[in-house]
Amino acid sequence: MGPFLDFNPFDNLLCILLGISFTVWFTLLLVFIIVPAIFGVSFGIRRLYMKTLLKIFEWATHRIERGAKDNNHLLYKPYSNAIIAKEPTSLEEEINEIRRRGSNRDLDSASEFEMSDIFYFCRRGVESIMDDEVTKRFSAEELESWNLLTRSNYNFQHISLRLTVLWGLGVVIRYGFLLPLRMKNFLSEQVHLMCYRICVRALTAIITYHDSENKPKNGGICVANHTSPIDVIILASDGCYAMVGQIHGGLMGVIQKSMVKACPHIWFERSEVKDRHLVAKRLSDHVEDTTKLPILIFPEGTCINNTSVMMFKKGSFEIGSTVYPVAIKYDPRFGDAFWNSSQFGMVNYLLRMMSSWAIVCSVWYLPPMTREEGEDAVQFASRVKAAIARQGGLVDLLWDGGLKRGKVKDTFKEEQQKLYSKMLVGTQEDRSRS
Amino acid sequence: MGSRASTLLREEEIEEIKKETGFSHSQITRLYSRFTSLDKGENGTLSREDFQRIPELAINPLGDRIINAFFPEGEDQVNFRGFMRTLAHFRPIEDNEKNKDPIASEPLNSRSNKLLFAFRLYDLDRDDKISRDELLQVLRMMVGVNISDEQLGSIADRTIQEADQNGDNSISFNEFIKVGNFLIFCIFGNMNYYLT
């Protein structure tokens, strides 16, 4: 009995202390995060946070490099560094160059086939084996400096005690503090804009919106490059959009259903997606009604790792309304937003997002574009894509994002074959004439 | 990403590859990361499908032949050593190699080894002769469906006529070299490397 009596008051004290500190913490949370979020006011704390983090990352990388040099370890070099310089010459130019340089004969009339012609294809082939433009777009961008996240460290060896301690501290902060904070906020239910704004705060998203005078208006289509599902949150927290997309199962499906209640979005069954005319009809119906919100579409069709913009599917450009292009560029140093859906699922991805340092990105609203006379949907799509790539500092690629999962079409090979054949056959005709 | 760190190359391996192929340290580590990114199965070897997943290679008319050059006779997998050995053909020719070993065999990027690589693109059955059929096969791969069989046949005949010296209606390696264009491959067989 004695020991128990001794324990009780002490226990009570502990409970009271815990209770008080919890309340205080919760109130602080409310005051500093939720209330400003509702009113769209910022404290500038996040920018300071960003600056501090950057300084720490630089120091960490420096330490790793120094440590590696001291211990003679191997440093993994980011694979995105180009190893070879590729020349952008055409098939014809290069083959003629090969023939001209190697032949003893005087070449006024271009000869037809030479055995050395294969050298062109051979060289191009091996160049693409060493380094190609497409496959590196489907995996997360690799960073020059380490940002204290294990997931982006490929040199994870014990370098110094200080670094490990810092990393450990980072883990504690991210999983023990940032993550629960964000889980709580993420699950709260609010009205449309408020909800998104809180999500943005919840993810510690530091977003810079440029050129807001070009924001999409009703009856238009908003087109953006796609890196992750967070793109939606980022755009929707700065304006209201109608979403288009497939109905997913699981967590995404629940979110989608709840969004429909707030605002008329356009969701399709998986079977309906195959029917392009049906999709196009529903989209144009929506667009014609000028009271309805602008539609948000990601024409790449899949998530790309934010170093390039891939082929835009022409469907959304056939509808004929004004297109408002938007360029989104993430800063990968604070947390890679790219969702590699073949590598991890939605929940895993959200977990990674919420336990990274911050989501820092820039959004540029580009001036609206419309299809010009004599321009078909494909050319219009390329024009819009070029504008987005230019603004975001991304590489403009002609390749299809679908190459993430599927094979390349044979038509590209056939084009090359046709070009080469013209070189051979064209000279045949000259010969018969002379 | 975690697996990549655990399969970093050992120093000894890099030294061996350096001696064998002549690539520099940073070039080898860079190409190793390329190798691992192509290796979707993560088993340390590449299969033909891994190569075909590169879109720019898949649309190359000679893509299949080039891929074939990486695989030794009858095998379906190539490891990193084999990968580097084949790529070594595409290094620039140097007149004085730093690690010149008098006993060592000819370097992989010598003139004749580069030509042998090109020769083998034609000579599928490795009988050291390019027959009319083998020449036609390669021609067909490069032109697709755009030229008729007869025209292609006459191109092949003309080529063999010009190159063949001993009258066996096929092109041997020595005849291949003498065709006079071999200098270009020595120029074009090289890539412009950024990393040294």
TrEMBL record, chain A:
Transmembrane segments: 20-45, 159-179
GO cellular component, one term: membrane
One GO-annotated biological process of the protein: phospholipid biosynthetic process
Location of this chain's protein in the cell: Membrane
Alphabetical keyword list: Acyltransferase, Lipid biosynthesis, Lipid metabolism, Membrane, Phospholipid biosynthesis, Phospholipid metabolism, Transferase, Transmembrane, Transmembrane helix
CDD domains (alphabetical): LPLAT_LPCAT1-like
GO molecular function terms noted in the UniProt entry: glycerol-3-phosphate O-acyltransferase activity
Coiled coil: none
Broad class of where this protein is predominantly found: membrane
Superkingdom as given in the UniProt entry: Eukaryota
Record SUPFAM superfamilies: Glycerol-3-phosphate (1)-acyltransferase
Biochemical pathway: Lipid metabolism; Phospholipid metabolism
All copies of domain Phospholipid/glycerol acyltransferase, residue ranges: 220-331
Family the UniProt entry places it in: Belongs to the 1-acyl-sn-glycerol-3-phosphate acyltransferase family.
This protein's name: Glycerol-3-phosphate acyltransferase 4
Source organism (scientific name): Oncorhynchus kisutch (Coho salmon)
Lineage of producing organism: Eukaryota, Metazoa, Chordata, Craniata, Vertebrata
From TrEMBL, chain B:
Record-linked CDD domains: EFh
Main location: membrane
SMART domains in UniProt: EFh
A biological-process GO annotation: protein transport
Domain EF-hand per the UniProt entry, residue ranges: 26-61, 110-145, 151-186
GO molecular function: calcium ion binding
Recorded family membership: Belongs to the calcineurin regulatory subunit family. CHP subfamily.
Record's protein name: Calcineurin like EF-hand protein 1
Annotated organism of origin: Oncorhynchus kisutch
Lineage: Eukaryota, Metazoa, Chordata, Craniata, Vertebrata
Annotated gene: CHP1
